[in-house]
Write a structure and sequence with these properties.
about 70 residues; alpha+beta; four-stranded antiparallel sheet
């Protein structure tokens, strides 16, 4: 099963910006994620079309499973 860590921020325009990290480690804690999100905000390393990131909204792990029903060559 594939998993992705989604870090969701709000930018200066009030819109949401999601940073997706594929295959996060399984033992992530709230403290780990909070620290990384705080660092991203403090360093101001991402600029969006709506301006700089200004606040944290949420972090979540999204899991996806897929199964081929048919394959055509």
């Amino acid at each position: 099963m594939e998993s992705t860590l989604q870090l969701v921020f709000r930018n200066e325009d009030g819109r949401l910006f999601t940073l997706s990290v594929p295959e996060p480690k399984e033992d992530l804690t709230e403290a780990d994620v909070t620290g990384v999100m705080d660092l991203i905000l403090a360093k101001n390393i991402f600029q969006t079309t709506g301006g700089a990131l200004v606040s944290k909204v949420r972090a979540r792990i999204v899991s996806r499973d897929s199964m081929d029903v048919a394959a055509f060559e």
